[in-house]
């Protein structure tokens, strides 16, 4: 296997990137981590606060900044690329930053990785495969056709294609993972689960899009981190791995579970107008990751995981309150 000594983690102040940095600090204290993050509205240095300064260093900057990459990339032996504009609703309101960061930014990083011959792992999403019908017996596999629906998922699909082209044309040592919906601490309050939990804590009614029948395949963020580590260190170059933990649930079931765990009536929410082009269902078949790399999720009890997330938001009001005000104003302007 590959034993990285110094990894560059892009987007390491966002939700999944920060949880990955914490995972590495916890499990691999010998690995040095440089976080490169632009600190957009979604990035918060608090997300990686308290880690040993000798191990984790933050550089505030843009993945599109070639001069900066030419300084940082030669110092590391692997790049784990999380940085992205990540929210579908924002991409529908304004697609432009999604192309700049997700497409151009990925190209700039690939060029730096090529110039200095650095191992590259690309973090992507199951949304590149579009959606499934609610009653389709099939799930997404590594062979599913690309069929993205939103500007966000189209930009992630473009970035996946760039990575494959750099592998085939330039021989870049790269892998790709496409993961399903993550839940856990440090997730921005614009996303479904934190939005609903923090609304209830603020005495506001949760908002469900459309009929609530849409299905997402939930995985705890720590299980995403462990899978990425296995792929980075033991995955085959040029390969794609789907990451999922058999966590399919409809939005209305998830919302009712949150309301129940928080002591509210299960109908204490509002129906709001649907997301344009709303994907019906995502579902991952993780057979390749399980059989080739022997990976298994540790968080298999969703209700227990949800209780942990509710406790985390209950105990971290200072972390989310400033973002909550801004986010709800943005949603109000879109009638969501
Ligand atoms: P997030 O929005 O919480 O965090 C993104 C981070 O990237 C932020 O810290 C932000 O400041 C940083 N960033 C944005 N543009 C940048 C730029 N130009 N240069 C440097 N840094 C920049 O996102 P997330 O939910 O943690 O998602 C992380 C990655 O995982 C993304 O690539 C996303 O597509 C992918 N992913 C997310 C999920 C999910 O459920 N959230 C599932 C599968 C894959
Ligand atoms: O599948 C992986 C993807 O999961 C990632 O690539 C994205 O970065 C991540 O944001 C997430 O995308 P979704 O669009 O599935 O997540 P979101 O949290 O925005 O919404 C989850 C579901 O909940 C979706 O069907 C829309 C619905 N929803 C969302 C919000 C914010 C509501 O019903 N009400 C809401 O208030």
From TrEMBL:
Q: Which organism is it from?
A: Bifidobacterium ruminantium
Give the taxonomic lineage as stored in the record.
Bacteria, Bacillati, Actinomycetota, Actinomycetes, Bifidobacteriales
Per its record, what are the GO molecular function terms? dTDP-glucose 4,6-dehydratase activity
**Where does the source fall among the domains of life?**
Bacteria
Biological process (GO), any one: nucleotide-sugar metabolic process
Task: Report what the protein is called.
Answer: dTDP-glucose 4,6-dehydratase
Keyword Nucleotidyltransferase among record annotations: no
Known cofactor(s)? NAD(+)
Which Gene3D superfamilies does this chain map to? NAD(P)-binding Rossmann-like Domain (3.40.50.720), UDP-galactose 4-epimerase, domain 1 (3.90.25.10)
Question: Known catalysed reaction(s)?
Answer: dTDP-alpha-D-glucose = dTDP-4-dehydro-6-deoxy-alpha-D-glucose + H2O
Family to which this protein belongs: Belongs to the NAD(P)-dependent epimerase/dehydratase family. dTDP-glucose dehydratase subfamily.
